Amino acid sequence: MKKAEFMVDKVGETYDGIISSVTKFGIFVELPNTIEGLIHVNNLKQDYFHFIENHMALVGERTGMTLKIGQKVQIRVEKADPETREVDFELISAEEVAPVEGPKGRKKGKANSSTRSNNQRRNKKDESFDGKKKKNKKKGKGKKQPFYKEAMKQKNKKGKKKK
């Protein structure tokens, strides 16, 4: 509470800080005076960022910009609310670091190979993958009837014998 109260009159000022934590919803930056604040992922206007959990980093989709723990950043104090004890920052700049491998999403317009193989397995009994019916399907009397039709035939046979 005291930290947020201390930062109320510092709104709009810029500071150098270090990223102390990275989450899927944003990054926490610690200033030299031990004040810690959040830069929410929605306020990162430079790019659309993906959270890479095993690297504890946010990686920009288009630019490849990487934000990770220990990285030096320059921030502007956006909001300090003593009631909610929150201090919000805006990212001005970040030092360049080695890029982290981004998320492995599928490319637009291309089918995922695992989806294709699942579809093949699903359709294996009735149809081939290209949609054509298989030729070796049973027809006529050799085709297995539903259980209730077989039961009806047996019932009819029993009824005929009694007459």
UniProtKB/TrEMBL annotation:
Parts of the chain that traverse the membrane: none
InterPro entries reported for this sequence: NA-bd_OB-fold (IPR012340), Ribos_protein_bS1-like (IPR050437), S1_domain (IPR003029)
Compositional bias annotation for Basic residues: 132-146, 154-163
Gene3D superfamilies xrefs: Nucleic acid-binding proteins
Residue ranges annotated for the S1 motif domain, each copy included: 12-92
Chain residue ranges for the region called Disordered: 98-163
Matches recorded under CDD domains: S1_RNase_R (cd04471)
PANTHER family: 30S RIBOSOMAL PROTEIN S1 (PTHR10724), S1 RNA-BINDING DOMAIN-CONTAINING PROTEIN 1 (PTHR10724:SF10)
Protein's UniProt name: S1 RNA binding domain protein
